Amino acid sequence: MARIGTRGRGGVRTDRNDLDDASFRHSGDEGGARVTSSDVPDYIAKNWAAWERWAPGFVAQGRKDWNERDLRWGVWGTAESELGLLETIKPAADVVELGSGTAAISAWLARHGAQPVAVDFSRRQLDTAYRLQLEIGPSFPLIYTNAEQISYDVESFDLAISEYGTSLWSDPRRWLPEARRLLRPNGRLIFVTNSAFLMACTPVEGGPATERLVRDSFGSMRVEFPADDTVEFHLTHGRWLKVLRAHGFELEDLIEIRPPEKATPRFEFASLEWARRWPSEEIWVARRT
């Protein structure tokens, strides 16, 4: 992200939440072979390694998020009661959370009658989610896998969500086709990511956005942060529209978040003053055509 680790966020399907195997394995791999750089794209291997390092620092925030009565989205914690992104979700809807982290969104959905499945490529993040299931509840499947390849049947879900998860850490030319495969006809996709404007103002070495344009908008969608050895994917609005349409999605809404006057960011991607002048994060809502 302009980055959720220091600035980010898979693998055996495990409906029984059996996360004892420390190796990183693909969902559906019978043998459960350890993933190497030859098995997955280099950015998946790099980002997985980073999240295994960062995960212990997200336990306290995960517990706080699980205890929230209202679901809060993104860096500025914008309330679901304000945004209404999930107000039309049908009872017992099947939902997949792509890059779930500690799975607070899935927990909220489960409490409200949905049937979520949380997917993440960090075993340690899912370890935290499992402990929070035991401590706070409710329980739901935790899937330890790369979200670009998930061992669920075609058209298994009504809704796919990614909040600074797969939407940030995976190539949209790979994760969007998988999201479409998993969604039923007319299924919705909601994802949250840094704004294109924020990234244009984020220093090359990382850190909070400045008041100057310092990055090319027409460069590669792949953005590397050598200090963390991580890779993120950031697109302009035009490129997002093109890639969404190319992979079978129709845009329904684009929300550019402006935080309230006394908001406190969860991560220091931009100051409050900056984010009230320019959009720092975006919520995209699309539907499978």
Plain-language structure description:
The chain is an alpha/beta fold and 289 residues long. The protein has a single domain, classed as Vaccinia Virus protein VP39 (Rossmann fold, 3-Layer(aba) Sandwich), CATH 3.40.50. Helix content is 29%, strand content 22%. The protein has ten helices and twelve strands. The strands form three sheets. The protein has an eight-stranded mixed β-sheet, with helices on both faces. A two-stranded antiparallel sheet has the order 2-3. Helix 2 runs parallel beside helix 4 and helix 2 crosses helix 5 (123-135). The longest helix has 13 residues, at 42-54.
Structural class: alpha/beta
CATH-defined architecture? 3-Layer(aba) Sandwich
The CATH H-level homologous superfamily: Vaccinia Virus protein VP39
Order of helices and strands: EHHEEHEHEHEEHHEHEEHEHE
Which segments are poorly predicted (pLDDT under 50) over 5 or more consecutive residues?
A: 1-37
Q: Strands across the major sheet, in which order?
A: 1-6-5-4-7-8-12-11
* Basic shape: globular
Biggest sheet layout: 8 strands, mixed
Tally of DSSP helical segments:
10
Strand content: 15-25%
Please tell me how large the radius of gyration is: 18 Å
CATH topology: Rossmann fold
Q: How many beta-strand segments?
A: 12
Report how far apart the termini are: 28 Å
Query: CATH class, please?
Result: Alpha Beta
